[in-house]
Every structure is written in C-alpha cells, then in structure tokens.
Design goal:
Layout lengths: L1 E6 L4 E6 L6 H4 L5 E6 H6 L8 E5 L8 H13 L7 E6 L1 H13 L5 E6 L2 H7 L4 E6 L2 E8 L4 E3 L10 H18 L1 H8 L3 H6 L1 H21 L14 H11 L3 H19 L5 H10 L10 H11 L6 E9 L2 E8 H9 L2
Parallel strand pairs: 2-9, 3-4, 3-5, 5-6, 6-9
Antiparallel strand pairs: 1-2, 7-8, 10-11
Helix pairs in contact: 4-5, 5-6, 5-9, 6-7, 6-9, 6-11, 10-11, 10-13, 11-12, 13-14
The structure holds nicotinamide-adenine-dinucleotide and zinc ion.
Nicotinamide-adenine-dinucleotide (NAD) binds next to helix 2, helix 4, helix 5, strand 7 and strand 8.
C-alpha cells in the first residue's frame, strides 16, 4: 500500500493506493462506518460488504438527485447514525458525488471517505472535493466543496467494470496527458486499453499518476481561479454534445477534445492534432462526430451567464502543455462553423 496525504485549504486527504478494501476497518470501526454504494457494485462485490452497514442506491446518473439523498438520510437515521459516523462512498462518480454531499449536510456534516470503483471516479470524480446532485436538466446544480478524509484505491474492484466504462474513464486519462503530461501521453501511445485491463501493475501506476496530476492542479487552485480550468479540456463542446445527443460522457469529451485540437490549430498554432486523434481512436473513443453546429453553439451559449461575451476555452500549445484562452462567442462560432 502507498499512503500519501495532501493538504487542501479546509482539510487533509489521505490517499491509499494499492490498498485492500478491508483496510477501511483499520481506519474506522465497522460500528462507526456506514457504506453507500450502488446496486451494480454491491451485486458484484457482496463479500466485501459483509458485516458493514450498507445503503444501496439505484445505479445511474438519473438517480443522482434529491430524492435519493432523502432516502439515504432516512436510512442513516434508521441505522442510528450520529456525529461519529463515517460515511464511505463505494462506487463510480455518482456514488462518490452523492455520498460527499450527504456527508456534508447530514447533522451539519459528518466524516466521509471514498472507495472509487470506476476509472473515471479513480482519476477524476473522487478527487478535489466537489460533490452534489443534479436538478432536472441541470447537472451538479446543488452541492458543496468539501474534502473526504481518505480515498482508498482497491484495483481489484475494477475486475467487474464494464468495457464501456473503462473507455469512458480513459477519456479523462487522455485529457490529463494532453494538458499536463507529455510523457504519459507517450506511454498511452505505446500501449492499448487491453494491456491496462490485464496488467494491474501498469494500471495502478497509471491511475496513481492521474490521481496525483489532478490533485496537484486542485491543491494549487482549489477554487478554480486559473489552473483548475485546464481540467475542463474537451468539456466545453463535450457537455453541449452530451446534452444534445445523449451520448456517454467519455465519448462527448473525446469529441470535445477533437474540436479543441482543431481550434488550437487556429488560435495557438498547435500542430499535433493527428497524434491526439490517433490516441483517442486507439482507446475506442470517437474524435469526430457530425454534430449540428448551430444547435451545439446555442446550447454552449445558454450554458453560460447571460451577460458574458466570451468563454475560457482550454486549448493546447503542445501535447502536455494546455492553456486557457478567453475566446469571444463570435470567434468560437466562426471557428466551429469552419470545422
Ligand atoms: N466531483 C467531481 O469533481 C466529478 C468529476 C467528474 C465526474 N463527476 C461525476 O461523476 C459521475 C460519473 O462517474 P462514473 O462514470 O463513475 O459514473 P457511475 O457512477 O454512474 O458509474 C458508471 C456505471 O458503472 C457502474 N460501476 C461502477 N463501478 C463498477 C464496478 N467496479 N463494477 C461494475 N460496475 C461498476 C455503475 O453502477 C454505473 O452503472 C457523474 O455524475 C459526474 O458528474 C464528478
Ligand atoms: Zn469529464
């Protein structure tokens, strides 16, 4: 097990890499701990939950909503939870987001920890303290910034992760490499997804590298004044096409990365689009998509504050060197139309 502690403004977070799920008992007693997980993760790993008080929620983004929060709170009361209880979210980003939120509001805040079980949650959602729920069509509309006490990585949990979720998670891995880590980009180029799926030693190293990359960015800019914005690479157009076509998040991010590379060519003189596109394809992600440009632009504009005239667009100078450039809407419209 590799243990690392990072200090955020409000709290320290301990990362436990290559740990075994059962290590939770070393941190807090089973009595003190209440687990929140979803039906898929629970169904695949029943043995691990034995002896723990466990709240099982329905799986999927459509359940990242207030009524699920209410259900969890009711069960916490029924289970006799108090201020000494630690809530542990075991699951993908939906579970970690909702657990962090419930822990933040239950009795005005109890301790929580995460055991991420999807690649996306391991490299992204469990890190940085943002949590919350969706309201109607608005994603992550309600929530808090509050750090968990620990994030425990037990890679054996990934054995049951469906292929499409591996692919989705790798969109964020490629994003990290593109904005910050050229050496990791080369590592991705010289491997393929199936290698990481089989070789858990390489996978553990890769996940840890990504977790530390995101952590470093967040520690330096917890409240998203500058550097943290880089993590939105691929997400500007990504979110718009995700809403419009109801496609998986990783696919949408991949399409967004493809567009951001093209825009970079025009704005920063970026010359390595082909390499980025090839890596996306290599990991089963679509770099291109015939999206309705007018509709996409309309969603993009409606996403932003009414009075803003521009968007902070994340572009690449080079692979491994991302930059945030404020681009006026009319310029973005021209650039997208010309794609
Ligand atoms: N807080 C943040 O900073 C942050 C960052 C990125 C994403 N997010 C949030 O994360 C969510 C997406 O996360 P996700 O992609 O992990 O989604 P998810 O939690 O819905 O998991 C995807 C699917 O995989 C299943 N699953 C997860 N782990 C499994 C395992 N080990 N075995 C079998 N099935 C498993 C889940 O049940 C679900 O069906 C979104 O709600 C997004 O808003 C939050
Ligand atoms: Zn994302």
């Amino acid at each position: 097990m590799i243990k690392k502690t990072f200090s955020f403004s409000s709290a320290a977070v301990t990362y436990l890499f290559n740990a075994d799920f059962s290590y939770i008992q070393e941190l807090f007693t089973k009595e003190q701990t209440i687990i929140v997980t979803d039906e898929n993760v629970f169904g695949k790993h029943k043995k691990k939950f034995k002896g723990f008080k466990t709240i099982v929620i329905k799986a999927g983004e459509q359940f990242k909503i207030q009524s699920t929060v209410d259900g969890i709170i009711q069960q916490l009361i029924d289970l006799g939870a108090d201020r000494k209880t630690t809530l542990v979210g075991v699951g993908g980003g939906v579970v970690t987001d909702i657990t962090g939120y419930v822990a933040g509001v239950f009795m005005r805040g109890i301790k929580c920890g995460f055991v991420p079980t999807s690649i996306l949650a391991m490299v992204d959602a469990a890190i940085g303290g943002k949590n919350g729920i969706d309201v109607g069509l608005y994603k992550n509309m309600v929530g808090l910034i509050r750090q968990p006490a620990f994030i425990l990585y037990d890679f054996s949990l990934l054995k049951s992760l469906p292929l499409e979720e591996w692919v989705n998670g790798f969109a964020e891995v490629i994003k990290h490499a593109a904005i910050k880590d050229f050496a990791m980009f080369k590592l991705l180029e010289s491997n393929k997804l199936s290698t990481f799926q089989k070789d858990f030693t390489s996978l553990a190293k890769l996940v840890q590298r990504n977790a530390l990359l995101k952590t470093k960015v967040v520690v330096e800019d917890e409240f998203e004044q500058g550097e943290r914005k880089l993590l939105n690479f691929g997400h500007t157009i990504g979110h718009a096409v995700e809403n419009l076509y109801n496609i998986p998040h990783g696919h949408a991010v991949s399409i967004g990365i493809g567009v951001a590379c093209k825009i970079s060519e025009q704005v920063t003189g970026f010359k390595q689009s082909e390499r980025v596109v090839n890596v996306l394809k290599q990991y089963g992600l679509p770099p291109q998509f015939e999206f309705d440009k007018e509709e996409t632009f309309r969603i993009l504009k409606s996403d932003k504050k009414k009075d803003s005239q521009s968007i902070n667009y994340v572009l690449l100078n080079k692979i491994g060197n991302g930059t945030v450039v404020p681009l006026p809407f009319n310029q973005i419209e021209e650039l997208i139309t010309a794609l």
